[in-house]
Design a protein that fits this description.
Four copies of one chain form a homotetramer. Chain A is an alpha/beta fold. Helices cover about 35% and strands about 25% of the residues of chain A.
Chain lengths: ~325, ~325, ~325, ~325
């Protein structure tokens, strides 16, 4: 594997700033090498907090900065086409927040430019494909044990919409996720769309037709429905149920993956502690590294190690001799308070 | 925050090798600076795969190596005391795999040495405290809305034991986790232990008394039961249910946290997409960085960006004009096959 | 309340015979007074098994028989209109299996005849309205706490269709239940229907378009979808989820009623043993009465009463004195083997 | 089957009055022939409401009354022994509310009297054996697919105790159910009892040690724990989980029966509409009979039959012709308002 990847982040609004934080504090093997934003003050403030990171107001300048190996585009959609073309000029790999561009005509131009480059450089930020539940669902479909997918039911619910949210955004910003997920899960293009509109909820802002039922037909003859419901009031919920020839599988209702198959509903049980506690091991390590870099100690102490050792000794005696065994514990030093 | 943390990993068996991988590929802000193992060949092979990592057969030499800021002890339990004392000599922060030491007498000696050092240096690897479900359970208890904990029911099930597993290990290696979790969740020391032993399962190896029901009493008057069942055959399960004065809360049965309170059972719903998809964003970034460092493109392509844009256009028309709208899609270039 | 209700059962095929059994063995306060069927032998065999029940091949004759107070129509659909008109002539209350009649024109004639009678006499056998889960769902909607219903999602799955099942029967025999449930739950008429047909499942018999997605619009502006999937292979499932302005409520997935409301998912907990065990009390009584009438004893014996009394005595001592108390039990007499 | 069973009900307090109602309104094939209670006024009022039912203050007189074929004892526990012996004198079958008698010495005397009678006459009212979930759990255990039971975990929770509830009653009135269920599910006698008592809940009345953890050992070497928690505040819950050699099975947490087996958790799906809707059919019939006897019509009307027929016609057209089909519905007559 090559050295640490230097990333230029284009756009430092809500999503961009969050990606900067992620690259800096969460991701292994990457660093933020440059940031660009039209807001010169904001971008400088961000760059100042990161060692070896330069600030720019011009995206192309950020891409040309020292140590930049790759580009992350998180600017507003209308700025994507220009940023993508600039990245192509520097022949840099790109992670581009969705949408690729707003509209299929501009997207086609990007496709053509990338093809002229002669090799693929773009990944689009459809992050649901990295969600553990969707990944499990796709893996199960790929085993073929459920047979061919016939239908896909989706629920997409938000607590409430921000000011200015329109019915078009309901499709372009929200249902777009189910479009990508449908294409990815089923491996088929979408061929037709129908929209049914109930009387709007009393919670929907004036003029917003919410909720809606959006229907897709796919090239392989599957039928897909999406409840898009962005002022549901009670929470954020994303659910999907694939109906196949020999069973169904659903995600998103609290359990990780629930199937109906051969007379039984339910899910799988982990077979190993690494499966169950892998995340806990990762989090423990990150927490220890973070605290240590800050010069702190935050986790279970040597006292905790001692106290469990004393309880183990009582436990083994209780196991071997029967009856109730009292635990003998030294007095806890204030040092470990 | 200081620079990247250089870690010396002591012991490169199963757990140690996994921690090396974790520090190298998953954790942000850390690197493996040195490794030590009695197996000189193994430790050299591991060090060779990591830039700037030195190999040692003596733990103390690893701790003294260039660039070492902290120590991770993953050697067998009987070697922990010496490794901890060596780390104290170098005044290095330590993450020590459980057990701190095998036995309370040696653990007490470590406590005393750390106190002589004058500041805390040791974190013990009770990683369940970093599990998202246990963390939620503890957070809920700390709000006080359930009242004081009265009982704690635990299930700890393994598919099968490895050869050589003894009844003592059932306490020292398995139930030790519930001992730590009990102390941490309730914030109370354990004062007495009782063990009940049903007729062993036919799946238990000859001589192993499995399963057992282990009971703790705590300093605050709570009663805790642990089903330890390490040849259950069907999977790995860790469940906990706290019974409090005004309700109960349980984790580990597939749902993340389920409560009984005020006439209702159930759980909370995420309020925001960041809560629901935070991990997906993190995994997307790590996958993109990893693939890019390997010179590959693995995620959703520009074609996916284009195709969803075309479906969005059909969707908005269907929404505005009613009826069924066909999607117009360019022919897919082999470049994106 | 009046005396025992004498019922004439018209039609003794699968449904009719089951209703005869139900009236005879399950229902309190009713008896089968007459049965009618075109199959003279079958109807005689059924009548012979029931004290005071006469056999007929003419429905009208059965309705005129001694002791008949009411009529249950379970003959094939095309025979319903004549049987209903005959019941009107005798001015008898009728429970008529669905469909009322096959087709809206004949149904309109029945409506007119009932109105000429001057009072209502007909109940149609839409039995889902008596399902405990649907009843709970409707009760919840009627409280108004979820707000106005916006959408209703339905799943209707059968393992496999019998020979001769057609696409029309999919609507007339299967989806008809969701039509009634939609009208009943929402209290609104259905105003339009759309049907989407995926490529049929490989499990569907040649010529049967299965599954389908059926969409209703209602007079109050709600949108309803029904997955009708009658060769799903894995089981019989009927699920419904109502999406309202302030939350959702669903039934049919194992739990009795699960809601999403105000940041929480889940259900209610019984508040009283009568709620939890009402059915057990009813079944205990029926089992005791049935066994006693057969001259048998089948339930928990006096020995069971004695043995629990002895365990209670040990339990109270253990509670009062602490420690482990052995149960003292007399030798079990062979009489109670 | 013999004629309708005439039952003498001894004791018409809360439980007795409820049994009278059940025999009168719910149970098929039985009638209340006599009632006895020390409260002459109450017993007369009850008898007056039931045709052919005589009122008594002496239990033996009720048993000797005309038309009595069997006895139901629902008087206070201390009166059970005398009532049972009186029933034996009349050689009548008895359903006796739990406890058989209060105490094992008196229970032994009843056993001896029944043995002298030469045939069994007594069924004890341990009604949990008739609960659908416990029945499924026992059926599953009897298939042997889970292997031998090793442990049984129970939760028994009440909202709050009535005034005067004592720690002894916790065992004798509450845990007695788990004693019976343990003996019945496992088919083994209980051999020893241990009780652990946490610091009482703040919700427990002064002097009541609540909750408690009660442990049973059985003749076959199983270990059983019972959380008895009768002031839990949030609801009435009865849960049981059997831990066997090859899997576990639990009831009482909302789903009907959930197992862990061979890498999967979950439950079974009904295979047939009769399994799913059997209760709905029974309730529909009882509701129709009850309403008809009152001279009322309460269920779906002929209008409902007509309206669904019209929707079916639109549905079949939509299915055959494609697109959206409007439903043509006659104007609803006020007669069906």
């Amino acid at each position: 594997m090559a050295g640490v990847l230097g990333v230029a982040v284009i756009g430092t609004g809500r999503m961009g700033a969050d990606h900067v934080r992620r690259l800096h504090e969460v991701t292994s093997g990457a660093r933020v090498a440059a940031v660009a934003d039209v807001d010169a003050e904001r971008v400088k403030r961000i760059a100042d907090g990161i060692e070896g990171c330069s600030a720019h107001t011009d995206p192309a300048a950020a891409m040309a900065a020292d140590g930049v190996d790759a580009v992350l585009i998180a600017s507003p959609g209308p700025a994507h086409e220009a940023a993508l073309l600039a990245a192509f000029e520097h022949d840099l790999p790109v992670l581009c927040e969705k949408p690729l561009t707003p509209g299929s005509a501009s997207a086609l131009r990007v496709l053509e430019a990338e093809q002229r480059l002669g090799h693929r450089r773009v990944q689009v930020g459809f992050m649901r494909r990295y969600d553990a539940e969707y990944v499990k669902l796709k893996s199960l479909l790929e085993t073929g044990q459920l047979g061919r997918p016939l239908m896909l039911h989706n629920r997409h619910r938000n607590v409430a919409t921000p000011p200015g949210f329109t019915s078009e955004m309901l499709i372009n910003d929200s249902v777009v996720h189910e479009m990508d997920i449908t294409r990815w899960l089923l491996g088929q293009e979408i061929t037709a769309v129908t929209v049914l509109k109930p009387t709007p909820s009393g919670n929907a802002p004036e003029g917003l037709q919410d909720p809606q039922l959006v229907l897709f037909e796919t090239a392989g003859g599957a039928v897909v429905d999406v409840e898009i419901n962005v002022n549901c009031g009670f929470g954020y919920q994303v659910q999907a149920e694939v109906v196949c020839e020999r069973g169904t599988a659903r995600i998103g209702d609290g359990h990780s993956l629930v199937t109906n198959m051969a007379g039984r509903w339910g899910g799988t049980i982990a077979q190993d502690f690494t499966e169950r506690f892998e995340d806990a091991y990762d989090r423990q390590m990150q927490a220890w590294v973070d605290a240590t870099r800050r010069g702190e100690i935050t986790g279970p102490s040597a006292w905790d190690g001692y106290a469990t050792a004393a309880v183990c000794e009582a436990g083994v005696r209780a196991q071997q001799e029967g009856g109730r065994v009292e635990v003998e514990l030294a007095k806890r030093p204030p040092f470990y308070a």
